[in-house]
Amino acid sequence: MSEDLRCIAQPAAEPVTLAQFKGLLRIPLADTSRDSTLTLFLQAAREAFEGYCRIAIVTQTWLYRLDSFPGISPRYDRNGFPQFPLPRPPFQSVDWISYVDTGGVVQTLARDTSYGANPAAPFYGYQMQPGGGIAPAWISAPWARPNPPQRMVPANTLIQFRCGYGGPLTVSMTSGSAALAAPGFAFNPDDAPAMVGDVGTPISIPGAGAASAALLSHVAAVDGSGNATLAVPAATSVAAATAWLGDPVPYKLQLGILFLAQHFHEAGAVLDIDEPGVIERLRRYSRNLVS
Q: Which DSSP state fits 65?
């Protein structure tokens, strides 16, 4: 079974800011003559960490292409339980799963949250274990059901999913209201409430808390239209604020990216030789060895 993995929506921001990097290099913020090069070093360092650790750091969307559903893992051969991990943890949510049936028609799988116990659910579907941190999510057929039969053509199984610790999100809130307005963004109501990427996700909104401090809350509910309500109402109205939706990026990853970008800057190029040992030690904590 061959597979192909492509990033189709890049991160909207880097986990380490240009201001942080310039502070490490002792470059005045007002000096913008090298900003474009420094930005490329930061991006290269982040991508190098993601590639080595096999993770996603800031929210991004990937398309996973497979030539079939997985066979039965030897660990579950006795019970006939096929499953496979999604790459690039931390996992957030599945956008959709499609496959080519034996008639050559593209079909979409529905997620079965009853674990096969609901007779009214479609016979073919998927269930999943979302994992956590760098532990990958696992996808399998619903309990006591097989994967659907497929026409054996290349890339007959497609999975689009979101991953990463979190990412920036432009939001607005009204004082006294817990409703979150995010133009151009919708939560995935099909994933709520079991997916890490929707209900229960932490959010930090600058200026929306008491005395214009940051509002620290989490997504409490998502309705059928994808509108989100937070657990804590805003104390101060904000418009088009840049919030952070998701878990904070671990400080060891941030430090490692900073030090690797500094190494690139000192070498004047993106090199993977003679890296300081501290970089290896920092990224060792976040390496995904499963998917």
A: E
